[in-house]
Design brief:
The structure holds two protein chains of two kinds. By secondary structure, chain A is an alpha/beta fold. Chain A contains seven helices and ten strands. A six-stranded mixed beta sheet of chain A has the order 6-7-8-3-9-10, sandwiched between helices. A four-stranded antiparallel beta sheet of chain A has the order 2-1-4-5, with helices on one face. In chain A, helix 3 packs across helix 4 and helix 4 crosses helix 5. The two termini of chain A are about 30 Å apart. By secondary structure, chain B is an alpha+beta fold. Chain B has a four-stranded antiparallel beta sheet. Chain B is elongated and about 100 Å long. The chains are: A alpha/beta, B alpha+beta.
C-alpha cells in the first residue's frame, strides 16, 4: 500500500526534515506515526499524499511513484486516499452534506448517485441527523466526523490522519479513534500521526516513531519494544 | 445546472461584497477607457469633417472647348483617389463669386468681361485626403494640356495631416496606457478573489480536484464579472454622453459594434485575468 525506501527530504532553507526513512504499510494495516512536533510526522504524510516530493529515495503509494508523479496525476492519487487533519479543513460556507458531496463532485461522480453515497457515509460516522448543519454549528468532534465522512466517501484504500484528535477533548478523541478503528476493521489501511501517547498505548497497533527526522523505532521491525536510544 | 456554472454563481452568492467590488472596479476601469474612446471617436469625426473639404482645383486655359474638358472629366473621375470631379464653367464661377462675395457687388457689375477661368473641382475619397495623395492627383492634373494651374491649399492640407498624426499618436499612447491601467486594476481585483478562496482551493486539491476543475469556475466567473463591468461601463459612458450633449456640445456615441467591443474587452480581461491569477496560484501552492 505505502512503501517508503531510504527517503530523505531537505528544504532549501530548513535543512534536513527527513533522514533516510524506510517503512512499509501493508494493505489493511493500522499504524501510529509518533514523535514530538517537528519530528517529521506531517512531512511523511505530505510525501504520501504528494504535497511534497522526496529529495531522495522512493515513495510508493498504491501503485503510484510519488517522486515521478506528473502534476496532473496527483489528483488521481489523492482520490485513492482519505485524509483528515487536526484543523478539519471543512468549507465553512457549505453544510456537512455539501462538504462531503464536494469530494464526490470533484471526481466527476454521477450526479444522481451523490446524495445516497453522502448520506451513507454521514450515517457511518453518526452525523446523518446533522447533514444540514454548517461547520460553525458543529462541535469539534462533529466537524472531524464530517471530515472523516468526506475522506471516506471516495472509498479510499489508505486513510491518512494527521493529529486528528489534536483539537478534541478526551471524549471526542475516543469517539474519533473508535471511528478510525472501525474504518480499519473494514479493510482500509490507516496511518495516524499522533503525539498522544495515551492513545498510542491504549491500542496494540504498530508504532513508528520519528525523532528529528529519523526513524528511531518501528514496532513491526523491533518487536522487543525497547526503544532505540538517540544516536 | 452544470457544476461549473453552479460553482461560479455560488461564488457570487457567497462573497457578494467582493463580487460587487470586482464588478464596480472593472466597470470604472472600463468607463475611463470608454470615455477616452468617446473623445477619440469624436475627434476622429471632427477631423474627417474637416478633411471632407480637401479639394484640388484645376484651372482651365481660356478658350478650351467644353468638349475637351468634359472628356477629361471622365478620365479624372476614373482616378482611384477621386470621389467626384465637377466642371465649373466661367459663367458659373462668376455667378458663384457674386453670390459668395456680396460686398464686391460693385466691382463685379463694372466688369466688361468675365475675368474668372473655368475650372475642374476634384474631391478625393476618404483615406486619400492627405498631402501625398493630393500631390499625386495635382501632378496628374497638371499633365492635361489645357490645365493652366492647379491649387489645393498645400499648407492647409499639411497642417491637417500633422493634426491627424498627432491625434493618432496621442490616441494610441493614451489609449494603451488607459487599457494597461484597466488591465492591472482588474487583474488585482481578480487576484483578490482568488486569494480569498485560497483555503477552498487547497481543500479542493486535497480531495483530488484536478487543476482544470478548480480553474473552470474562476474563468467563468471572471468572464461574467468582466461582462457585467463592461455593461455598467457602457451605461456610465452613456450617462456621461447624455450630459455632455445636453450641456456642452453635440457629440457622437459608440456604435453598437464599438459598445460590444468594450463589453467583449471586459470579458476577455476578466477571463484572462482569472486564468493568470488562478494559474499562478495553482503553480505556487
Amino acid at each position: 500500500m505505502i512503501k517508503l525506501t531510504n527517503v530523505s527530504k531537505a528544504y532549501p532553507k530548513g535543512g534536513l526534515a527527513l533522514k533516510d526513512i524506510s517503512f512499509h504499510l501493508a494493505k489493511g494495516e493500522f499504524a501510529f506515526l509518533t514523535g514530538h512536533s517537528g519530528a517529521g510526522k506531517s512531512t511523511v504524510l505530505r510525501l504520501i499524499y504528494a504535497d511534497e516530493r522526496p529529495t531522495s529515495g522512493e515513495v510508493r503509494v498504491s501503485g503510484f511513484n510519488v517522486a515521478e508523479l506528473k502534476s496532473r496525476e496527483i489528483p488521481m492519487l489523492r482520490r485513492r486516499l482519505g485524509i483528515v487533519f487536526q484543523d478539519f479543513r471543512l468549507l465553512e460556507d457549505r453544510t456537512a452534506e455539501e462538504n462531503v458531496a464536494f469530494a464526490l463532485e470533484v471526481t466527476g461522480a454521477r450526479r444522481s448517485a451523490i446524495p445516497a453515497r453522502v448520506m451513507r457515509v454521514l450515517t457511518q460516522v453518526g452525523l446523518a441527523a446533522k447533514a444540514q448543519a454548517y461547520p460553525r454549528e458543529l462541535s469539534g468532534g462533529e466537524q472531524q466526523r464530517v471530515a472523516i465522512a468526506r475522506a471516506l466517501v471516495n472509498e479510499p484504500t489508505v486513510f491518512l490522519a494527521d493529529e486528528p484528535t489534536g483539537n478534541l477533548d478526551e471524549r471526542a478523541t475516543r469517539g474519533i479513534f473508535q471511528l478510525l478503528r472501525d474504518i480499519n476493521a473494514s479493510g482500509t489501511a490507516v496511518l495516524m500521526a499522533s503525539h498522544d501517547l495515551d492513545l498510542v498505548r491504549q491500542a496494540s497497533y504498530r508504532v513508528i516513531e520519528l525523532q528529528e527526522g529519523a526513524l528511531v523505532y518501528d514496532s513491526a521491525v523491533d518487536d522487543s519494544g525497547d526503544r532505540a536510544a538517540s544516536p | 445546472m452544470n457544476l461549473v456554472a453552479r460553482e461560479a454563481l455560488l461564488a457570487f452568492r457567497r462573497a457578494p461584497l467582493l463580487s460587487a467590488l470586482s464588478v464596480t472596479t472593472i466597470a470604472f476601469s472600463l468607463f475611463v477607457v470608454g470615455l477616452f474612446g468617446l473623445v477619440a471617436i469624436n475627434l476622429q469625426r471632427a477631423l474627417a469633417n474637416v478633411a471632407e473639404r480637401v479639394e484640388v482645383v484645376a484651372y482651365v486655359l481660356p478658350g478650351t472647348p467644353i468638349e475637351a474638358s468634359a472628356l477629361a472629366l471622365k478620365d479624372i473621375e476614373a482616378f482611384p483617389e477621386v470621389q467626384s470631379a465637377t466642371y465649373v464653367s466661367e459663367d458659373q464661377a462668376l455667378a458663384r463669386a457674386r453670390a459668395e462675395l456680396a460686398e464686391f457687388q460693385d466691382v463685379f457689375r463694372e466688369l466688361e468681361r468675365n475675368p474668372l477661368p473655368a475650372s475642374i473641382e476634384v474631391k478625393l475619397k476618404p483615406g486619400y485626403r492627405d498631402v501625398a495623395h493630393v500631390n499625386a492627383v495635382a501632378e496628374r492634373l497638371r499633365g492635361f494640356g489645357f490645365v493652366e494651374d492647379v491649387r489645393f491649399g498645400r499648407d492647409w492640407v499639411e497642417k491637417l495631416d500633422r493634426l491627424r498624426q498627432i491625434a493618432a499618436a496621442v490616441g494610441l499612447v493614451v489609449g494603451a496606457a488607459f487599457a494597461a491601467v484597466a488591465i492591472i486594476i482588474i487583474g488585482t481585483t481578480i487576484r483578490m478573489a482568488v486569494l480569498q478562496r485560497s483555503r477552498e482551493i487547497a481543500i479542493m486539491r486535497l480531495v483530488g480536484a484536478t487543476d482544470g476543475f478548480i480553474r473552470r469556475p474562476f474563468l467563468l466567473q471572471g468572464a461574467i464579472k468582466g461582462m457585467l463591468g463592461g455593461l455598467v461601463a457602457i451605461g456610465l459612458s452613456y450617462g456621461a454622453y447624455t450630459l455632455i450633449t445636453r450641456y456642452l456640445l453635440q457629440a457622437a456615441f459608440f456604435s453598437r459594434p464599438q459598445a460590444l467591443a468594450i463589453v467583449g474587452f471586459g470579458m476577455v480581461i476578466g477571463f484572462l485575468g482569472s486564468a493568470l491569477s488562478v494559474g499562478r496560484h495553482l503553480r505556487r501552492v
